[in-house]
Write a structure and sequence with these properties.
2 domains, globular, about 350 residues, 6-stranded mixed beta sheet, 5-stranded antiparallel beta sheet, OB fold (Dihydrolipoamide Acetyltransferase, E2P), 20 strands, Rossmann fold, alpha+beta
Length: about 350
Amino acid sequence: MKSTPQLELININKRFGSAVTADNFSLTIEQGEFFTFLGPSGSGKSTILRMVAGLEQPDSGSIRYGGRDLAGVPPWKRDLGMMFQQYALFPHMTVAQNVAYGLKAHRMPTDAQRTRVKQMLELIGMSGKADKNATLLSGGEQQRVALARALAPAPDMLLLDEPLSALDEKIRREMQLELKHIQRRTGTTFFYVTHDQEEALTMSDRVAVLNGGRCVQCDAPERIFTRPRTRFVAHFFRGCNVVDATLENTGPNAAVRFGGVQLPFPGPTTSGAAKTRGLAIRSEDLRVGAQASGLPLKLSATLEEVVYKGTTVDHCLRLPDGQRIVATATQREADTLGQVVPVGLDPSRVVFLED
């Protein structure tokens, strides 16, 4: 028998004036998942999270948590933890007092509070800073304290709205792994919101990509990265080339052409099929120059620019049909701008997009 999802969003609609932030939105989150909403500003991800928290109300639709309808339930009775971009630590309190704040609100006995605070500080690696003033901490340390405060009452689900965006890159990368490790150790369901692709891919069990208040794809991180369904998802992840291909014939032997080469189309098509199809090709799947020789599909392209990025080098190329693509390698494979170079590709790495 299939278990009930921990969180169910059912046909949620929400507008602010003419702006649509949730458009007939439905989705489920399972117990113990690290689930991430990913999308650009204005896609509706934070608004939907705030509706789950009870800070906004949907215009229509329902939200069910543990099988219970949350309509009319105030935020403080939803048994959810919250962690925002601004950590909002209490400046007049110590680290331990900040972590204990929610425990006092739940009227936990004093001895039990001390034990729980100690456990949480050990969990975040700050056992030696219990008596330190919260305002004297670094940004990364403040983030850890805010997380410990949110987890201390042991919520079944923690809502996190871009909590790492204010940190510098080095600390942010460290905290991505730390958050995932803490989520695994506690077993708490994390419902995470971000616009950062790396965060979503690094930490999540599943990722929902949002655009215009709709979920355009929900999948495991590896699949959503390598097998995007739409142009929007493909464009959203760095390093993905999206090119137009022309459908040359229909029926069981359908094929498309782009960049001067032909590629079999997966599955038969009808006479009314769209003549232009979008293809997604990861830049790291393209090989330039001598590296192209071992791959079954060969294109020719003009080298327009070479961009050194430290660990990788981008080769910016123009195909014979005028479309531009980027091939990423670990070293320079061609140097002479304006030179026509061979480009190799494994056809199985090409993704046919739905729109």
